[in-house]
Amino acid sequence: MIEVTNLSKTYNGSVHALRGIDLDIKNGMFGLVGPNGAGKTTLMRILAGLIRPTTGTVRVLGHDVTTLQGKFEAKSILGYLPQELGLYPNLTGREFLDYIAILKGVTDKRARRQQVEDLLESVRLADAADRRLKTYSGGMKRRVGVAQALLGSPKLLIVDEPTVGLDPEERVRFRNLLSEMAGRCTVILSTHIVEDISHSCNDLAVISQGQVIFRGAPGDLITEARGHVWSITTQGERPNGGLAVVSTLQMHDGVQYRVLGTPEPGYNAVSIEPSLEDGYIWLMRQHSPAPA
Amino acid sequence: MQLKLLQIAAMIRYEFRLHWRGRALLVIILALLVMNGVTALVMSQSGDSMPAGLVINHSAMAWATVGVTLAFLLPIIVSDTIPKDRQLGVRELLDTLPMTRAVYLLGKVLGVYAAVLLGLLVVMLITGVLDLLLFGEVNLSRFLEIWLIGAMAMVILNGGLGVLLPASQPNRRRAVVLVIAVLILSFALSGTGFESGSIDTYFNPVRPPIIMYYLTGVAGTFGGAAVSQFTRGDVWLSIGVGLAELIAVGLAVWGWSRWREAQ
């Protein structure tokens, strides 16, 4: 479906956003996770044909998106939700979706109307569809963005940080929507929210400093942290000794910490089952530069 | 090809709505209506003191406001048509759609034409009805020539250049500043007057031959008060040069955007 070979992107000759990335992405839901500034958005923008890589090739359904013709062909099968979506404030939600649908090539009027109505319903905007976009809240605008990305039944759906600005209920709904889409096309979900990945992706890559540092199933990432996750309860003092504190919970008899690493024996640490978030943080710790 | 035509049609339809739902175009059209209405009322009250050819003189008066507005204000109010997409963040989304740069530029320009021409049509009809009611007659051929050749040419040339010239600008403010700078420069380079037969007169984006011919030429012919140095031939030459300018700028912008896309 998508083949990324030796992909690099350097801005202004010195900022290396991507460094020799190789990826082979099949149908289904693919998660791309990494910290802010890791290069996720740059990779998404290259896949969407918005920017050219410095070196390497990207083939989407056989179309080389580093060429003008290939890029145009790939765009006809693409749904894209950018990290920062812009909308026309003076159009209504329905008008905006209709406009984008035509530009995407949904030319049959009846089919277009039906698709717009269905998507408005899916993202729960049917009641506000005839209001101008400038009156929408941040979450509503995000949902318009989600709906426009799904227009035209794309074969490749690229969503960059899609759940930012959505409330918990909307996030769950959106994840389910993406999972349904993944049955019919390839969905690439870029996020720094590990929870989004854990609930919807069966294949993921972790990217850091422009390089892929992990590729596999969520279960494999969890396995990376097995034996390194502990629960420590103290009277308030924060555990030290190079431990990474994942969460802090105030209890009636002290403070319970969830930590990663190898605690000293005096802490009476209890080994616990890792989550995907633990696996991710453990991996990032392994690949972060050692302190001087 | 069919998809491209549908995309252009959709852009015209929605650009039309976007321009009319913004304030600038609405204010300009309302201002033209008010100015034309007031001048018509004032001139009709002057009665016997006005020379023969009163109707045409009011047409020239109406043209003075419309022509100057189209020459100077229209390029400014449409200058943000393309930079606004970038400023709003819509451009990134549009760039991921299967739409060529040529379709995008054409859709933007034609959308502006549709929005402005509809506004001018309203101004033209109301001005015509006012002239008929207040002065009792309208010289239809002259009236139509002023509006359908003079005004339409100004919209197509200056509206198109107003959209295309600042197309590379990243935001609305810089687009407006660029267009104002070009207009000031054009006016400054034209010197103290506009001369028939002078090359820079025809290249000037203020379109002196069109403005002056309909302002003094038409009124002069019928009112006997003033004679323009410009002829109808000058008007057509100015339109031809303007179209060449428009095509050249359009091709340059298209080439630039293709080059940017390939980078």
Describe the protein.
The complex is a heterodimer of chains A (292) and B (263). Chain A is of the alpha/beta class. Chain A has two domains: 2-218, Rossmann fold, CATH 3.40.50.300; 227-272. Chain A has nine helices and 14 strands. Chain A has helices spanning 40-47, 68-75, 93-104, 109-122, 138-150, 168-182, 194-200, 218-225, 276-287; strands at 2-11, 15-25, 28-33, 55-60, 63-64, 78-81, 156-160, 186-191, 203-208, 211-216, 229-234, 244-251, 254-260, 270-271. Chain A has a six-stranded mixed sheet with strand order 6-7-8-3-9-10, sandwiched between helices. In chain A, helix 3 packs across helix 4 (109-122), helix 4 (109-122) packs across helix 5 (138-150) and helix 8 (218-225) crosses helix 9 (276-287). By secondary structure, chain B is mainly alpha-helical. Chain B has one domain. In chain B, 80% of the residues lie in helices and 0% in strands. The radius of gyration of chain B is 20 Å and the shape is globular. The model of chain B is unreliable at 220-226 (pLDDT under 50).
Secondary-structure topology with pairs:
The complex is a heterodimer of chains A (292) and B (263).
Chain A lengths: L1 E10 L3 E11 L2 E6 L6 H8 L7 E6 L2 E2 L3 H8 L2 E4 L11 H12 L4 H14 L15 H13 L5 E5 L7 H15 L3 E6 L2 H7 L2 E6 L2 E6 L1 H8 L3 E6 L9 E8 L2 E7 L9 E2 L4 H12 L5
Helix pairs in contact in A: 3-4, 4-5, 8-9
Chain B lengths: L1 H20 L1 H24 L7 H25 L4 H6 L1 H5 L6 H35 L4 H25 L7 H18 L9 H5 L4 H16 L8 H31 L1
Helix pairs in contact in B: 1-6, 2-3, 2-6, 3-6, 3-7, 3-8, 3-10, 6-7, 7-10, 7-11, 10-11
